[in-house]
Amino acid sequence: MLSTKIRIDGMACSMCEAHVNDAVRKAVPGVAKLRSSFKKGETSFVTESQPDLEALREAIEKTGYRVLSLETAPYVKKGIFG
Q1: Among candidates 21, 75, 18, which has minimal Cα distance to 6?
Q2: How many other CB atoms are found less than 10 A from the CB of residue 13?
Q3: Which residue from 1, 8, 64, 68 could staple onto 75, CB 3.0 to 4.6 Å apart?
Q4: Calpha distance 53→79 (Å, rounded)
């Protein structure tokens, strides 16, 4: 499994988070643990396979937000105390 973290500029409220989440769901099949935070300016999610980062960037930017960075790393499941 892979974890993807996206830094996004322009999110200002919870509706912005919803718009970004919808764009991610449409661009990346099999998304799990999708979370966005306008306060942190980031979105993160988990997938089984490598997402198409360019398609993801394009989908988010079509909604009016600017992608500052995209990074994918192996997903590390956190335990109760992790």
Answers
A1: 21
A2: 9
A3: 1
A4: 28
Query: pTM for the whole thing?
Result: 0.87
Which pLDDT does position 69 carry in this prediction? 96
Looking at 3.20.20.70, 3.30.70.100, 3.90.550.10, 3.40.1650.10, the CATH number of the domain 2-74 comes to: 3.30.70.100
Cα separation, 20 vs 37, whole angstroms: 10
Q: Residues of 46-60 as b/e, b for ≥16 C-beta within 10 angstroms?
A: bbeeebebeebbebb
Q: List pLDDT tens digits, range 59-78.
A: 999 999 999 999 999 998 87
